[in-house]
Design a protein that fits this description.
The chain contains no helices and 10 strands. By secondary structure, it is mainly beta. The strands form 3 sheets. A 4-stranded antiparallel sheet has the order 1-2-3-4, with no helix packed on it. It has a 4-stranded antiparallel sheet with strand order 5-6-7-8, with no helix packed on it.
C-alpha cells in the first residue's frame, strides 16, 4: 500500500479471481498483479489487473513524479493478456507503468535467460527521471 497525492491510497497485490464481488478488473492468467485505488474515505475509485496467461506476482509499487505509479514484480507469462513485454528466461522481473487513472502506459521485462529466474524486490525513482530496480537476479 502506498499513499497517493490526493490523500487516498493505492493497494497492490495479486489476484486469482475473475470479475466478482467488487472486483471489476479482468482476470488474465493463473495469478495477476491487482491494484485498487481508494480515496481518503476508503471508497474504491478503480481497480486494474495486469498479467499474461501464466503467473505474475506483484512485489513493489512506487508513485512516479507524473502522478502515475510503477508496479514491479516477476512474471512467468509469455506475451498474452495485457502483457506486451517478452521474457528472456523462465521468470523475469516485470515492470508496469500506469497513469493516475490506472491505465497502462508501458511494460518492460528485465532479466537473464536462465531457468532459476529473476525476482524484483524493490524500486526507487532516481533524480534523472529513471528508476533503480533491486532484487534477486539468478538467471544463468
Amino acid at each position: 500500500m502506498i499513499a497517493t497525492s490526493d490523500g487516498g491510497f493505492l493497494l497492490g497485490g495479486g489476484s486469482i479471481s475473475p470479475i466478482s464481488g467488487n472486483k471489476t478488473a479482468t482476470k488474465y492468467g493463473s495469478y495477476d498483479y491487482w491494484v485498487v485505488k481508494i480515496n481518503a474515505n476508503g471508497e474504491k475509485v478503480w481497480d486494474k489487473a495486469f498479467g499474461g496467461s501464466d503467473g505474475d506476482n506483484l512485489t513493489s509499487m512506487i508513485a512516479t513524479s507524473d502522478g502515475g505509479f510503477l508496479l514491479g514484480g516477476n512474471s512467468v507469462s509469455p506475451i498474452s493478456g495485457n502483457k506486451t513485454a517478452t521474457n528472456y528466461g523462465v521468470s523475469n522481473c516485470w515492470v508496469v507503468k500506469i497513469n493516475a487513472n490506472g491505465d497502462k502506459v508501458w511494460d518492460k521485462a528485465f532479466g537473464g535467460s536462465g531457468y532459476n529466474g529473476d525476482f524484483l524486490r524493490s524500486m526507487i525513482a532516481t533524480s534523472d527521471g529513471g528508476f533503480l530496480l533491486g532484487g534477486d537476479f539468478t538467471g544463468w
